[in-house]
Amino acid sequence: MTARDDLSQRVVLRPGAVPIPAWWPHRSRSALLEAMALNAAEVGFVNSRVEDVVVRAHASRRTFYAHFDNREQCLLAAHAAVADDAFMATADPDPQVALGRLMRYLAAWPAHAQLLVGDVVAVGPAGQARHEETMERLAVRLAAWAPDAARARGARGDELAHARFGALARLVQRAVLTGQYRTLPRLTPVLTELATREDPSA
């Protein structure tokens, strides 16, 4: 089993530093990304200072600014890494397998879950655009799991795919925003049904 097969594997770069996903590069940039995600999840992006991030990552301000121009860029980069993880998790053609992997990943990494469902919008227009782009990409992936009849409806099929994804995303968002991360894997059956049912309103 590789690190990417188990999306909960962790690596700690040095004692006391934040754990990072085992498949992220084992270097200071990854530690800074994880520290930013954790800080934003705990105190909000507005209250996350560069100093807080570098202390948490066991890095220096010099190292931070060698990788990022500012904290906004750091949060956007953290979101990009988490979005890549989400696409990696959902790459399986079987929706139950894919959604199960995604839910286990989000349960194992609560700060990533918060970043994916909305924390990135705190950056402003750039964050809002990034969030929308990510949600669109995930909706397109969900559309591939829809029944053939739904995909054959053309524009209406596309609208149905977005409606399905909206319902799915809301269930996940509610669990994340109420801190019920451990319950996420239990959502897999209902999320799979939403993704694959012929008529999602039935």
Q: List low-pLDDT spans.
A: none
Strand content: under 5%
Number of helices: 10
Question: Could you describe the largest sheet, including whether it forms a barrel?
Answer: 2 strands, antiparallel
* Outline: globular
End-to-end Cα distance: 39 Å
Rg over CA atoms, rounded to whole Å, is 18 Å
| Order of strands in the sheet with most strands | 1-2
Number of strands: 2
Helical content (DSSP H or I, runs of 4+): 55-70%
Structural class: mainly alpha
Structure in words:
This protein is an all-alpha fold and 202 residues long. Helix content is 63%, strand content 3%. The protein has helices spanning 28-43, 50-57, 61-67, 71-89, 95-108, 110-117, 125-143, 148-151, 155-177, 188-196, and strands at residues 10-12, 19-21. Strands 1-2 form a two-stranded antiparallel ribbon. Strand 1 and strand 2 form a beta hairpin. Helix 5 (95-108) packs across helix 6 (110-117).
Structural features:
202 residues, mainly alpha, two-stranded antiparallel ribbon, 10 helices, 2 strands, 63% helix
Summarize the entry for a quick read.
The protein has 202 residues and is mostly helical. The chain has helices at residues 28-43, 50-57, 61-67, 71-89, 95-108, 110-117, 125-143, 148-151, 155-177, 188-196, and strands at residues 10-12, 19-21.
